[in-house]
From TrEMBL:
Location(s), subcellular: Membrane
Primary localization class, coarse: membrane
Organism for this UniProt entry: Ensete ventricosum
Residue ranges occupied by any Sugar phosphate transporter domain in the UniProt entry: 23-297
Keyword Transmembrane helix: yes
The protein's name in its UniProt record: Sugar phosphate transporter domain-containing protein
One GO cellular component term noted in the UniProt record for this chain: membrane
Keyword terms of this UniProt record: Membrane, Transmembrane, Transmembrane helix
Transmembrane segments: 12-31, 43-66, 78-96, 133-150, 156-174, 186-207, 219-241, 253-275, 281-300
InterPro entries hit by this protein: Sugar_P_trans_dom, TPT_transporter
PANTHER family named among the record's database cross-references: SOLUTE CARRIER FAMILY 35
Disordered: annotated span: 302-336
Amino acid sequence: MAPTSKADRKAALDVTAWMFNVVTSVGIIMVNKALMATHSFSFATTLTGLHFAMTTIMTLLFKWLGYIQPSHLPLSNLIKFVLFANLSIVGMNVSLMWNSVGFYQIAKLCMIPVSCLLEVVFDKIHYSRATKLSIVVVLVGVAICTVTDVSVNAKGLMAAIIAVWSTSLQQYYVHFLQKKYSLGSFNLLGHTAPAQAASLLILGPFLDYWLTNKRVDRFDYNATVVLFIILSCTIAVGTNLSQFICIGRFTAVSFQVIGHMKTILVLILGFFLFGREGLNSHVIFGMILAVLGMIWYGSASSKPGGKERRTHSVPSDKSHKHGLLRAESGEHDDQV
């Protein structure tokens, strides 16, 4: 009875973590789309810096309340993580500017096979044939409903490559650092958010000026724009936290595969909120195929041999020292 109850509780927490991420991710995309498309606030990198500034405030508050326990993350690992994360943000923005929307979507889809490669090489993960085929179905489905015009040039291709690899490494690193140093999602976010906020707020205005030829300090701010910025930053706290929770509980590959449900929801909401001219049988078929692939992936990867580690890596010598800390951090993740 006890194992069943424990399994049921884990399943319920897994679903809650996914729903938390889906709701906050779709919400922030809708808010940012309105902010940038309707109100012409095109300073994406600076806005991301504000997101992490708000997240930093949240982590400081949680530390003060006792939800985040003292923990250690080596400076070298922090620097590598911030480098990957910031390259991901900059790379995606530049890739979108230099490439067509179709090629940008293809680059995003490439993150799944790259994440698989990282897990196979570094974690010795083995995928069954059914798991591999389910991933292919998801990729094909999402490609059908998102990829339209495709054009590429040399500098756009380079930006896309940097964006794909840095994003995949950043997401892999989230899982890796949590496991190696026994860090909960709160703890890891408490280490990384301040560094990302500081670096992006310093570099963001210059990068945005280079991308848009506009200065963030000369934008015509009004009450509505400020309200949308505050709303975006508030939702971003949940998005950042839920990403760390999901990748920590699962893996970067699972986060990418099931995460495409957000792509489907964004498309559906976009059709209803911003016009239905792009909704047709072609797109609907792609959505259905992607969802079926996600269901198949969830079933195939959860079966014995569907996705398993071939060799068990030796835990860090700090795992015993941080054992209690990890247990406490896990409880706080579950409470979220």
